[in-house]
Amino acid sequence: QPAPGSVPSPEQQQVLCSQLEKIHTLFRRQLGIPLLDMEASYAEYEEWSEEPIPEATIKNYKKALQQLEKCKPYEEALLGAETPKLAEYQAYIDFEMKAGDPARIQLIYERALAENCLVPDLWARYNQYLDRQLKVKELVLSAHDRAVRNCPWTVGLWIRYLLAMERHRVDHSSISEMFEKALNAGFIQATDYVEIWQAYLDYLRRRVDFTQDSSKELEELRSAFARAVEYLKQEVEERFSESGDPSCTIMQNWARVEARLCNNMQKARELWDNIMTKGNAKYANMWLEYYNLERAHGDTQHCRKALHRAVQCTSDYPEHVCEVLLTLERIEGTLEDWDAAVQKTENRLARVNEQRAKAAEKEAALAKQEEEKAEQRKQARAEKKASKKAKKARSGDKRKAEDEDEGEWGQEEGKNKLPSKRHKGEGDGVLPEEDMEVETGLFGRSAPEKPDGPANPKEKASTSRKDVPKVFHDSSKDKVTVFVSNLSYTMAEPEARLRELFGSCGEVAEIRPVFSNKGTFRGYCYVQFQQEESALRALALDRTAVEGRPMFVSPCVDKNKNPDFKVFRYSTTLEKHKLFISGLPFSCTKEELEEVCKAHGNVKDIRLVTNRAGKPKGLAYVEYENEAQASQAVLKMDGLTVKDHVIKVMISNPPVRRLPEASRAPAPAPRQLFGARGKGRTQLSMMPRALQRQSNPVAKAENGMVQNSPATSSEPPAEPKKMSNADFAKMLLKK
Predict the structure, then answer these.
(1) Nearest 10 degrees: CA dihedral of 529, 531, 533, 535?
(2) What ranges does the record give for the region Disordered, renumbered to this chain (predicted)?
(3) Structure letter (DSSP) for residue 260
């Protein structure tokens, strides 16, 4: 830099001009890109530049300013949103995709992934865009590699990575190494392993030149097929208790390759025999798939043999298989073949129809038996109710007769006699009305007026309900009726309360609360609407809190006619977008849990699990918009501390409900164990303890548990040997 007041040399002037040009270039570049506060940058450039701003720069600045106005709403939405901002980023990506600028699309995807690197769907969309639009090898493979590093549990990302490597001519050893990494990624479903194996086998198949009889690539393909079958049978089945490939799709593809590309029908038949031995012989579609393969690449003899076996083994659609066999013989068979096919199909269909008839009869008998049992239970309840009424009527008549007798014989005596001293416990400390009259007369007070009815309003209401005639439920109106249960027994005026609750669903025709014989509310009722749509809308009120308890609302279904009907509104299968959280404090509210969960995605619904009384159980289900957000929440929230409680978070996958061993009814004991007269009311032994002997001594196990020996557990105890008086005397002398 020249000294002040001195004239710069030509070299210094050249350096100074180049620096000024760089500054001009930086300003022009910045003004040509849509950035926030562009106006301030333009004013600064205008103030700094000694020369007027070029027209081209002004034109680019205005164009960038217009583009900024379009992007500004999305940028402001991102600034105001909370992490992870997935919905805002998705809207911004859709906007840029419509604009079509590859650089800006790549930029917005990278910004979104910087904050949502654990979202598999976002990686999948980005990689798909790169594969189809940019197709730059280094960029594409780098993005795929980052995707599987961040979301290794998603099989779709690994499959896209293998396809991208093959598409960009990566060497075979690198692709095989990447496939081995995928196998060790730890997928969450058995079917994921089937998909990754199928993708790798497709790649190996594309490498084979089938014009040659044998090659290194073909042998590698066959060994890979064999390894895949063995891997699913051992590794996957051991981990998930299923292979993930019940239809043997990998073996089917292997058989197709052998038959169509290698012309090796013998190997294809061996594979299909193996497929049928894995429980697929009862399905018609499996036999027809094998038949089509034989039809295309085999011979008529093996086609006929396959269809005869199919007729014998198929249990789901035997008619279809029989029709295919008859069609084959009609076109290509001899008269003997036709006769044999007709006879076989007729015998098989007759046997199938007989089995179906027996099954229908059995089902009808069971249904009739259930109806008879229901009728018997109904009749028994009616008889029991009638006997109670009769007993109550007899006791009332008896009490009335006693009162009349007391009035006749004790009237004169009661006029001059003071009340006798009452013992503690008689009448719970409340004097009879006659005694109360005498007592008040002694002290100069007037006797209280006798109330006309019960003093307690609840007793009064229950007394009035006893006289209300019972209305039986009309099953023909089940479609417009809902069943409401788990209500509080102490609910006052349940009919008015429920009419207020269900009035928003539609016009209520009738509400029938159910009361006991004493007139108390039993906690459930029937709500009948005028229209079926109103009843369907009422089901949405299920689990609504009413007086501190969750109200259950379910369709009105006759359990006697539909014994298998279950009302459970929530899924009992794997839901990848829903989380199951345990270990929550009982004081945790829905709002507090939502504050914790919404930091990892958009929460659609939260359900706190409670008991029938509405008390929390420390469990919750949280539903996100998609699988990606749920996966991210599991990684971030599992082991988190909420109000001094460490919570556990996992993908919702309820276990299969099975009847526990302890709840199964024990087998009835043999009658001879209890003697000829059966089991008595008391199990007291009449033999002195000193003379008792254990026929089978039992050993005391750890923790106080008693372990039976194999003999005692499987065989009934041996009958004790009869003893004489001399034997008893010897036992006493030994003492």
Answers:
(1) 20
(2) 360-469, 658-726
(3) I
First-last CA distance in the chain: 124
CB-side exposure of 166: number of CA atoms within 13 Å?
17
With contact defined as beta carbons under 8 Å apart, do 518 and 489 qualify?
no
Q: How far is Cα 211 from Cα 446, in angstroms, rounded to an integer?
A: 122
Distance CA 268, CA 259 (A): 6
Instruction: Map out the domains of the chain as residue ranges.
Output: 14-73, 481-555, 578-651
Average pLDDT score over the chain: 80
Strand order in the sheet with 616-624: 603-610, 616-624, 575-582, 648-652
**How far apart, in whole angstroms, are the C-alpha atoms of residue 463 and residue 481?**
28
Torsion sign (Cα): 196, 200, 206, 209: negative
What is the torsion angle, in degrees rounded to the nearest 10, for the CA atoms of residue 51, residue 57, residue 58 and residue 63? -170
pTM: 0.52
Determine the Cα–Cα distance for residues 224 and 197; give it in Å rounded to an integer: 9
- Residue 213, both tokens: 């009889």
Task: Read off the pLDDT of residues 642-678 as tens digits, 9 standing for 90 and up.
Answer: 888 889 898 888 776 554 444 444 444 444 444 444 4
Contact 514, 472 (CB under 8 A): no
- Burial class, 189, CB count within 10 angstroms (exposed 0-12 / middle 13-18 / buried 19+): middle
Write out the CATH class of domain 578-651: alpha beta
At residue 37, the pLDDT reads: 82
Q: How confident is the model at residue 171 (pLDDT cuts 50, 70, 90)?
A: very high
- pLDDT over threshold 70, residue 500: yes
345: number of Cβ within 10 Å = 21
Per-residue pLDDT, averaged over 152-166, amounts to: 96
Residue bearing tokens 């020996």: 709
Three-state SS at 520 = coil
> What are the pLDDT digits (tens) for 294-322?
999 999 999 999 999 999 999 999 999 99
What is the pLDDT, as a whole number, of residue 401? 53
Mean pLDDT, range 523-529, rounded to an integer: 90
Q: How far is CA 38 from CA 57, 80, 482, in A?
A: 13, 20, 63
Q: Strand (E) positions, 331-384?
A: none
Query: What integer pLDDT is reported at residue 700 of this predicted model?
Result: 39
Kindly tell me the burial class for residue 436, based on how many C-beta atoms sit within 10 Å of its own C-beta (0-12, 13-18, 19 or more).
Answer: middle
What are the backbone angles phi and psi of residue 154, rounded to the nearest 5°?
-100, 110
Q: How many CA atoms lie within 13 A of 36 on its CB side?
A: 6
